[in-house]
Amino acid sequence: MIFRSVVAVIAGCAIFAVSAGALFALSGQDAHGEASVPFMVLAVVYGVAFALLGGYVSGWIASRAPFTHGLIVAGILALGAGISLIVTVSKGAIWSQVTALTAMAPAAALGGYLRARTSRHAKKADVVDSSC
Questions:
Q1: CB within 10 Å: which end of the chain, N or C, has fewer?
Q2: Using H for helix, E for strand and C for coil, what is the string for the chain?
């Protein structure tokens, strides 16, 4: 079970990290540089969506304690953003780190929560179906 949990958290983090890396690489935008407001809005919406997906997938792969796995993904995301913020604070723009801390990390936790709710409803439905 520990191995599955580790894989689940790595997968959840990878979904967020790879998608973020792809967005910045394909757009040519520096993650620590100034950006236009439309790009920042796009990046935040995109980041929240992939953080949510990462938390959800982490909970799905783990198959137990999905909310806890989403919280762990959120914590790792927040830790990375916090370290990046400390390193970058006087050397560049910090919008990406601040939004990762305030919107994307909570979205990863929400993804785990949504998976927990989905899996609970699925188990209840299975119990109802088996009694028919």
A1: C
A2: CHHHHHHHHHHHHHHHHHHHHHHHHHHCCCCCCCCCHHHHHHHHHHHHHHHHHHHHHHHHHHCCCHHHHHHHHHHHHHHHHHHHHHHHCCCCCCHHHHHHHHHHHHHHHHHHHHHHHHHHHHHHHHHHHHHC
